Amino acid sequence: MNQDIIVGDEIYWQPEEQRVAFSTHWQGRQIPCFIMLHRLEHLSGQPLADEASVILAFEQVRFDIEELVCERIEEEAFAPDGSIGL
């Protein structure tokens, strides 16, 4: 678990984009974040066929996602809209 950032509890499957949207709080700032389905499948080690399995997999690898987001923030790898994509 990373203490520098806090991943919010609200996560959303966005089927059109094939990604999960969530927000992270870092230094008092809310940052929109996204993880692509293929990346989540790689982290979880399983194919994800529906929204329920996607959300469950996200929760199972939440701490890994926090670490990846923290790395992207440290690299200042923000998208033009201020979001972080994984």
TrEMBL record:
Return any one Pfam family short name. DUF1488
Instruction: Write down the superkingdom of origin.
Output: Bacteria
Q: What is this protein called?
A: Uncharacterized protein
UniProt source species:
Oceanimonas doudoroffii
Q: What is the lineage of its organism?
A: Bacteria, Pseudomonadati, Pseudomonadota, Gammaproteobacteria, Aeromonadales
